[in-house]
Write a structure and sequence with these properties.
145 residues, mainly alpha, 5 helices
Length: 145
């Protein structure tokens, strides 16, 4: 009688070990995927909340510039530039249409912020771009699981 086992016999003897190995590899793969998905969702939430906060600050700048609530209009304009640039920069790591709408907001701000205190059209264009990025930010938040 030969001491060598056939493949079938080896499989039968080691069935529990093979099943355990398959479960371990599957569990490791799922856990890694879930951790990556959770980290992505966390990052998108933080980015979205930061953008929403900055949008409210920019809205305040718009209102201050338009309705003359501050004496030095140049400081609010500088603050607006900083906010618009920051929104554009941090939106680059966001998903969906958010980076594109942030670029559009920056372009509109670049074109119309100088006449914000004197032109209703400039105010309306900037606020329209603001609402677009706000909608896109809400869409990103809704898409997270």
């Amino acid at each position: 009688m030969s001491s060598r086992l056939t493949i079938t016999e080896q499989f039968q003897r080691n069935t529990v070990a093979l099943i355990s190995l398959a479960i371990a590899v599957t569990s490791l793969g799922y856990n890694t995927w879930r951790n990556e998905a959770s980290e992505h969702n966390r990052n998108q939430r933080v980015i979205s909340i930061e953008i929403l906060l900055m949008l409210s600050e920019l809205q305040q700048v718009i209102l201050d510039r338009r309705y003359g609530k501050e004496e030095d209009g140049k400081s609010s304009l500088r603050r607006g530039w900083v906010i618009a640039l920051t929104i554009r920069d941090i939106s680059m790591i966001a998903t969906g249409a958010l980076p594109d709408s942030a670029d559009r907001l920056f372009e509109v701000w670049q074109r119309d912020s100088g006449s914000l205190g004197s032109s209703d059209d400039a105010k309306n264009r900037i606020e329209s771009a603001l609402e677009e990025i706000r909608r896109d930010t809400h869409d990103v938040l809704r898409s997270l699981d």
